[in-house]
Write a sequence for this structure.
């Protein structure tokens, strides 16, 4: 879902929904890929408050060096704080050193290093040849297709495996009315609105990713990772209705039909208060690895 500035409370709140949604088959393929490495170097782009790190580090029973890359230094600081708090709760010895956090997971040293900058310059921020996996979660809907393709070409040239999770595709209200569908269309149009920097992919990001994979030299596994938001997930429902309200107002198209967008928002908010509304937000996950060279020469 697209928002220009990411609020730490929102990113932390979505964490448990992301955890439940992640596609286990896709994840297993990524973990199998990493099993061959005795120590790991992992880059998470658009790392936010550290969701990918927190999801994976305890599953990787080896020394790890994580690079968390984000263009928002506020979020990078929040991620180190969040990880340190978690380490404290779990009694993992840990130590903060400037832009790094060192923690011990049993016998293994786990280093978390923050990198401040845009993913478009990732090769200037980290040595790509050292990496075993590149991760990104809830990221690509924010960008133009050419930005994604440039990144994919860099990863392709560096022969780097990647795990791209929770790429937004669509959302469905439960129960859903034609007005809900129209508001979702407006919301998705807002994701793709013309901006000074060009139009973002919004819900089409995973299609672009898939097209590149189908044409390329990577083997891949894909699968759905949907948020199942129940009628008592009040905070999540309020967040999403709030995001839609703001986006539709910015688009200045919401009041052209039979049901004005503010009226729609009020009615849907009332439905949340009386626990009569659910939502499914569909995402897609991909793990891709360079196809092994056959070694057959002609
Ligand atoms: C929806 S959030 C996802 C955060 C995290 N991956 C998660 O799953 O919770 C998108 C993240 O991308 C970051 N971001 C946006 N544009 C970026 C860019 N050009 N380079 C690096 N990070 C960027 C934002 O600051 C934000 O942390």
């Amino acid at each position: 879902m697209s928002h220009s500035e990411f609020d730490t409370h929102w990113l932390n709140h979505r964490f448990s929904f992301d955890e439940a949604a992640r596609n286990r088959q896709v994840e297993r393929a990524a973990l199998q890929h990493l099993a061959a490495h005795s120590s790991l170097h992992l880059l998470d782009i658009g790392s936010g408050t550290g969701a990918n790190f927190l999801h994976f580090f305890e599953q990787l029973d080896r020394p790890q060096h994580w690079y968390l890359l984000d263009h928002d230094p506020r979020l990078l600081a929040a991620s180190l704080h969040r990880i340190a708090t978690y380490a404290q709760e779990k009694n993992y010895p840990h130590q903060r050193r400037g832009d790094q956090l060192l923690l011990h997971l049993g016998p293994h040293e786990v280093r978390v290093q923050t990198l401040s900058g845009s993913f478009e310059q990732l090769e200037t921020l980290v040595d790509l040849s050292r990496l075993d996996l590149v991760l990104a979660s809830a990221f690509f809907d924010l960008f133009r297709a050419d930005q994604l393709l440039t990144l994919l070409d860099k990863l392709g040239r560096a022969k780097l495996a990647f795990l791209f999770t929770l790429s937004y595709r669509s959302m469905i209200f439960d129960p859903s009315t034609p007005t809900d569908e129209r508001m979702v269309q407006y919301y998705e149009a807002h994701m793709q609105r013309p901006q000074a920097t060009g139009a973002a992919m919004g819900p089409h990001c995973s299609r672009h990713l898939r097209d590149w994979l189908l044409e390329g030299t990577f083997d891949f596994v894909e699968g759905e990772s949907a948020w199942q938001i129940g009628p008592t997930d009040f905070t999540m429902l309020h967040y999403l209705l709030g995001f839609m309200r703001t986006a539709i107002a910015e688009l200045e198209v919401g009041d052209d039909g039979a049901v004005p967008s503010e009226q729609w928002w009020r009615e849907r908010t009332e439905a949340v208060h009386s626990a009569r509304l659910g939502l499914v937000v569909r995402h897609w996950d991909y793990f891709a690895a360079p196809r092994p060279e056959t070694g057959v020469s002609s």
The beta strands are 40-45, 64-70, 94-97, 100-105, 108-116, 133-137, 162-174, 218-224, 227-229, 278-290. The two ends are 48 Å apart (CA to CA). The mean pLDDT is 94.
